[in-house]
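Suppose you are handed a protein chain with no further information: no name, no annotation, nothing but its sequence. What can you learn? This example shows the usual starting point.
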Amino acid sequence: MLSCLNEATTMPYSLNDDIHYSALAGFKGIEIWVDKLKKFLEKYSKEDLKKLLDKANISAPCLCAFGGIVFPPKDIFEKRVKEMEKYLEVGNFIGSKYIVLCAEGFGGKSFEEAREKYVLRLRELSRILESYDIMIALEWFDELPPVIDIVKSIDDENIGFLIDTFHWYRGDGNLDNLRKIPSDKIFFIHICDCENLSREKLEDKHRLYCGLGIIPLVDILKILDEKGYKGYLSVEIFRKEYWRQSIEKITVEAYKTLIDVGLKAGVEIR
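A reasonable first move is to predict its three-dimensional structure. Written in structure tokens, the prediction is:
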């Protein structure tokens, strides 16, 4: 598996700095935060971004994140897709393989009605993304069985799962549900730990570096390894306590703790 840093972990810092210090810490990939990319493009070009990545010898496998696609009226959907395409063009140029698409629950509908909307909208979005050679990693925020059903119903080779260890744990923390995900549908992983609080009290601010909390990351990595997952493990943490630290400290700690958990699981993380 490959190490990656999601730029939310270094939220106060620029894309330029994130690339430099992530590579310096040892990460093989950087998951680009779209708001930081937007700010970067106000002064620089996609060519400049590729030069930065190449110089640092780090990849940008995924753009994070997009949303508001499933339930809005068609005109709003089309407007959001048009806005998205500016970043898809950049992603294609720098070699990104995925976008993170945030799920929207059931949108106040029955599961059957919601599933139908997901199928229609995500198939349509997938056709658009084909021209950019980018796939959709759908991020679900609750227990996994409904989204397993949804992705199966969509039945599109370019649509799969983004598994976020925090959302999985807060959803139900059921390892058997992870095992139910088809191996070829696990596209990308957000990895972190969290404080030992009841699930209903957990918020993003309670995320921790890998191995410092209650999430069974060793078990999760073993399951991913059994499924033959060779992709990225992207450290995503929204913690102001960390954000107040230097970018050097954040990136080094994020990398070290990820590698340490991999060693405990007997999984090679590069």
